[in-house]
Amino acid sequence: MIIDKLENSGQYVALHPGFKAAFDHLASIDLNALEVGKYEVDGVKYAVMAKDGVAPEVAAEKFECHNKNIDIQVLISGVESMGWKPRNDCSQPKGEYNAEKDVTFYADKPEMQFTLNAGEFVIFYPNDVHAPMIGDGFIKKLVVKVAI
């Protein structure tokens, strides 16, 4: 997992071939003007979400990780907390891996929580089980799916 400000994203482009295209695209658009929905531009797939945050217990019901994609989650507005735990420390899968949606859910509880402010991002690799959308107010975010 990596947490940083979007203005520092150039430091991470060498970590994966898809990161440069993703961060270049994010730098070329007005994030605040984006409408909720799913997009694909120049091979960069992303979704914009906007809704009220939830309690940590509610977010933990969708404690998830992915096998085929790395998430770059960018907070556009609001304050968002997220729960996290290493996948190797999770032992309670909720059902089987869903290949179509590239997701595995866990009944385990996050072992830590961190907070993002507008203009910050987190990169979740397949070994990062995460519970997003924790907060008291309105959260607008963008999630880029970078294929492994």
Please describe what this structure looks like:
The structure is a single chain. The chain has 148 residues and is mostly beta strands. The chain has a single domain, classed as Jelly Rolls. The chain has two helices and eleven strands, in the order βαββαββββββββ. It has helices at 17-28, 56-60; strands at 2-5, 37-41, 44-52, 63-65, 69-77, 79-86, 104-106, 112-117, 120-124, 128-134, 138-147. The model has no long low-confidence stretch (mean pLDDT 97). Pfam families: DUF386 (PF04074). InterPro entries: NanQ/TabA/YiaL (IPR004375), NanQ/TabA/YiaL_sf (IPR037012). It comes from Mucilaginibacter mali. One of its GO terms (cellular component) is cytosol.
Summarize the structure.
This protein has 148 residues and is mostly beta strands.
Q: List the helices and strands in order.
A: EHEEHEEEEEEEE
- Uncertain spans: none
CATH class membership: Mainly Beta
Oligomeric composition of the shown chains = single chain
How many DSSP helices? Answer: 2
Query: Kindly state the mean pLDDT as a whole number?
Result: 97
The largest pleated sheet is described as:
6 strands, antiparallel
Kindly report the name of the CATH homologous superfamily.
YhcH/YjgK/YiaL
User: Which structural class fits the helix and strand makeup?
Assistant: mainly beta
* Proportion in helices: 10-25%
Outline type: globular
What is the tally of beta strands? 11
Structural descriptors:
about 150 residues, mainly beta, Jelly Rolls, six-stranded antiparallel β-sheet, 2 helices
Q: Strands, helices and their partners?
A:
Elements lengths: L1 E4 L11 H12 L8 E5 L2 E9 L3 H5 L2 E3 L3 E9 L1 E8 L17 E3 L5 E6 L2 E5 L3 E7 L3 E10 L1
Antiparallel strand pairs: 1-9, 2-3, 3-11, 4-7, 5-9, 5-11, 6-8, 6-10
